[in-house]
Predict the structure.
Amino acid sequence: MKRHIVLIGDLVGSKELGNKDREKFQARLSDKISQINQESDSIISPLTITLGDEFQAVYKDMSALIADSWSILTALHPVGVRFSVGIGEIFTPINSEQALGMDGPAFHSARDGMDQVKESGGTYCVKLGSSKDQSDATQSLVSLVNYSLMFLSNEMGNWKETRLQVLTMLNDGLSIKEIAEAIGISESAVYKNREEGNLNLFLEIKHSIGENINRIL
């Protein structure tokens, strides 16, 4: 049976926000996932809010998932988001309308990963979904992916919203001039964010993670 990529996301510390702020960030989340669902061709079960501050989806491409996570982090800044990814089989039919009513090792591992990422205080966790996925080579690959995502998220931890915006727009293929006009900053400021943040390296790592995870699906 084909393996899939299940994403579960959760807002960090939203319960500590006041009611108005919590509603504001929940609305931002709703707007952003609606936009991603409309524009993405890599989602096979759409991003769906499940528990107010939690959402999930099924992807066919890991690189797109990472890019979408950056877009969500940008939209919700300064509120953080945790992302857990489960890779494995889904035993029930894929729900193409909402990411609900599905089950299988991919969902179980994503849920276990969310518990782990909450406990560790990190941003990302990637887990394999069943024992037959546990070859040494595959386990080593997933460990490398987790370390890479840990590195990226640690680097992003102190970024201002502007640098996140530049990263997501570079990923979308916008030119320096287009990014400057969209954000309302100078072109030199865009170049500075790109170079000081090593944003081209972020894009290369995202692409490499995507290629390697997609090979084991």
